[in-house]
Design brief:
The chain is about 40% helix and about 15% strand. Strand 8 and strand 9 form a beta hairpin. It starts with a helix and ends with a helix. By secondary structure, it is of the alpha+beta class. The longest helix has 18 residues. The strands form 3 sheets. A 5-stranded antiparallel sheet has the order 1-2-3-5-4, sandwiched between helices. A 3-stranded antiparallel sheet has the order 6-8-9. Helix 9 packs antiparallel against helix 10.
Length: about 300
């Protein structure tokens, strides 16, 4: 989510979303699982807090009202998508309601085993890239009937980049002394000019390393469909600059079969996110933003 989007939603302190809260919610609403242990997952995500429930389930609680919009969508869409995709995705098991002092709907999913994608966990990054492209091609081939159009639930991913034009230009000005502002502005304008006029297709909305799971060195699952919807799929190419590079980036683009305009819009999505997180208080996110800007400014594709 963007800084702009973050300020538009009420949020609950993540300190209040803890093991004790999850235990109360489970006991109140799903007592058949009340005997199971609850513990935080190793990587809990930015917009939701996630907990193990026993050994085979997870509990996922949105941290803000904007993220809570995604719960009913995932409950409805994931079973439909999962039956048509070549990799494992989350399977909803229960739909929780507000309670125990917690104000939002929430979900229970089946646990998917795996580690979040990192270069040192991937045996062959080029094969990883083509496997991911195959998954995205399959996602785009799913019938869009009844799929949600881009909107607040997707942080406007799948919609026009112009949604974030003012925010991006303001970030360029803020960081003018740290980057080639004219060149970055030109890259952003090129992304805006590469307008999308194709038929709407399914997009994931947040193809990031933390939402890709690997087992035995290979891509095994894709998680967190909170930003999914039906629209422009360019946002799903951002991984080309956040994780991939060189031969793996080229293989990803070739296997995905996207045109120059879609690739340009994907660069725009990557640029926007990097610019607004360049001063993120989390050192890992800030370092990631610097890396993406470096990739965008040093490669020609």
């Amino acid at each position: 989510m963007s800084a702009q989007a973050d300020t538009a939603v009420a949020e609950i302190s993540t300190d209040r979303i803890d093991v004790a809260l999850v235990r109360r919610l489970i006991a109140e609403q799903f007592p058949r699982w009340a005997h199971l242990p609850v513990r935080p997952v190793e990587v809990g995500g930015w917009d939701n807090r996630t907990f193990h429930l026993g050994d085979t389930m997870t509990v996922r609680l949105p941290s803000g009202e904007g993220y809570a919009l995604q719960v009913a969508k995932e409950q409805r869409c994931l079973p439909v998508l999962g039956a048509r995709l070549p990799l494992e995705i989350p399977a909803p098991l229960a739909h929780g309601r507000p309670g125990a002092g917690y104000p939002y709907p929430w979900s229970v999913y089946g646990w998917i085993d795996g580690q979040t994608a990192r270069a040192d966990r991937i045996d062959d990054l080029t094969r990883f890239a083509t496997d991911l492209a195959a998954f995205l091609c399959a996602l785009r081939a799913v019938d869009t009937a009844g799929g949600p159009a881009a909107g607040p639930h997707s942080a406007w991913r799948g919609g026009p980049l112009s949604t974030y034009d003012a925010e991006t230009r303001a970030a360029i000005e803020t960081h003018r002394d740290r980057l080639p502002a004219d060149r970055v502005t030109g890259m952003w304008q090129a992304a805006l000019d590469a307008t999308w006029a194709g038929p709407p297709v399914w997009f994931h909305g947040d193809i990031a390393h933390g939402n890709l799971l690997v087992r035995d060195g290979r891509l095994a699952a894709v998680i967190d469909f909170g930003c999914c919807g039906v629209g422009d799929p360019a946002c799903d190419t951002v991984i080309a600059w956040t994780l991939l590079g060189g031969a793996s980036r080229a293989a990803f683009r070739d296997a995905l079969g996207v045109d120059d305009a879609t690739w340009a819009r994907g660069r725009g999505w990557a640029l926007w996110k990097a610019l607004i997180t360049l001063d993120d208080p989390d050192p890992e996110r800030a370092a990631g933003a610097r890396h993406v800007l470096g990739e965008l400014l040093t490669v020609s594709y």
